[in-house]
Amino acid sequence: MATAKTTLPNAGPVTGSRSFLSRLRDGDEIARLVTMVFAATVVLITLLLVYELWTNSALARAKFGLHFLVTRVWDPNIDQYGALPFMYGTLVTSAVALFIAVPLGIGAAIFLAELAPPRISDTLQFFIDLLAAVPSVIYGLLGVFIIVPLMRTVIFPGLNKPLGFMPFFKGPSYGVGFLTAGIVLAIMVIPYIISVSREVLLSVPRDQREAALALGSTRWESTWKVVVPFAKTGILGSVFLALARALGETMAVTMVIGNTPTISASLFSPGDSIASVIANQFTEATGDVYLQALVELGLVLFLMTFILNGLARILIVVTTQRGSGVPT
Amino acid sequence: MSAGVKWRRFVSNFMLTLTGLCALVSVSVLFFILGYLVFNGGTSINWAFFTQLPKPVGEVGGGMANAIVGSAKLLMAASLLGVPIGFLGGIYLAEFSGSSVASVVRYAADLLNGVPSIVIGIFAYSLVVLPFKHFSTLAGAFALGLMMIPITLRSTEEFLGGVPRYLREGAMALGASKWKTIATVVVPAAYRGILTAILLALARVAGETAPLLFTAFGNLSWSHGWGQPTSSLPVMIFNYAVSPYEDWHRQAWAAGLVLLGLILIINILARTILSRGITVPRS
């Protein structure tokens, strides 16, 4: 109180500095507005993206309606377009990718989070991060020149002879096809599964492990029956994230899938995916309906990844928060 | 009883070894890719690759000089679009916005980040290519710039948020305005993290192919200015790899080596910058 009174008489210079202060506060206001404009741009761009996809597919949506999603024919000559073979290809290749990548990725994440000493774990994680940075066209390049020949000479005979009675493994094989694309996709998404799962596993409180070990469980039992169940929602999130990547992946798939719109139970059959048909036909599309059908495919792909990414984010946040919420 | 314990021990060791194998396999893929590219690309790379234009179909030789310059131009223009929006938007999120506005912007950025790159290509096509009626460097840069925004934005926000409170309070106690505090104290304290994020964003879009297919398109010769279609390294790799010509395959390997080398170097550089810097919270 006393100090407040003593400073009051010096009102003169204070008002002077006050106007200076308020000018500075105006500067704050300007900075706030300027940065707000840039932040708003992000929202605007996102809205514009949805709007453009929607309006630029209007013709195709009006002509085919929801039948677009269940029609098998894709023929520019008669101007008939259906998304089914491409949706099938996208889903099958992604499923194959997850089938391979999920066990491998989660296994590696368990090793990195539970077993490896921090130094080794961090070093390996560094390499995994680099692996995630390899561009998809490079994976495609390796797919074309390594996995496609390998498919013809090793994988196809190896699977077709013992398992050829099942429709999935019926021949013939051209090297390119669903399985080849699935394998390349698997290699691409493994780093994402490892990174996120490792993070989630590391967030599991220490006392969970210690309690399990104290009760006499082995290292593996404490990991598999206590730590993994604790983190399972987050691990599921990492799988969804990987799935969203696999669904949207373009180049690597385009280069090895064969680019023929077929629906076949055989994994060796050449096929096509939503992203790869857009990549291959967009510049050649003549006629409004053709182009708009491709944009509509883009819209379908956008919605699929949108839903999956949303689910993934919720699952990951829920687990890591639960993990860190418990006092350790 | 003791047999049961032995069995459980065995299972434990077996499964844990298996997880180690999973990690080994996953990491060795990186070295396999690197080795294969260095082997195949290294034998194909030569001086002409960096200095000459592509030769017409059927002729042996030539290089990708125009694609290298094209990629550099695309990345430069993309950064000019993506970095300011991401950086300043991130400042707004971390320093100025209320939580409800921030969550809307954050949501939009995450959504944009998850959009498949081919869909970004369609967007850039309808927004930039259609009005001008031709493919252009600008359209390609627009697509790549869009992809840089969410990464830059979210990391700027995160690293600014990690700057300790007492630094801000100290600056404000000395009479600095909020803006002055941000510009002279908060941003400099977080600049390593932000620089890392920008470099990582750049490395990510440097390898993007799908959004360039129908925006920057391709060009067998030099691309002058910003309004012409341009060739780029990733698109060249794609076109040459799926072509039936042996010599083009050779050049695709060389281009792959150059591109991957560039991207890995940027990545390692970025991570070194970060690890040498101040302690920032791990995301």
Order of helices and strands of chain A: HHHEEHHHHHHHHH
The number of helical runs of chain A is 12
How would you classify the helix and strand content of chain B by structural class? mainly alpha
User: Can you tell me the residue ranges of chain B where pLDDT is under 50 for at least 5 consecutive residues?
Assistant: 278-283
Instruction: Please give the most extensive interface between any two protein chains, plus how many residues each contributes.
Output: A-B, 88 and 90 residues
Broad structural category of chain A:
mainly alpha
Measured on Cα atoms, how large is the radius of gyration of chain A? 27 Å
What fraction of residues of chain A sit in β-strands? under 5%
Total number of β-strand segments of chain B? 0
How many strands in all of chain A? Answer: 2
Order of helices and strands of chain B: HHHHHHHHHH
Oligomer: heterodimer
**Level of helix content of chain B?**
over 70%
Mean pLDDT of chain B: 89
Biggest sheet of chain B: strands, sense, closure? none
Largest sheet of chain A: 2 strands, antiparallel
Strand order of the largest sheet of chain A: 1-2
Mean pLDDT of chain A: 86
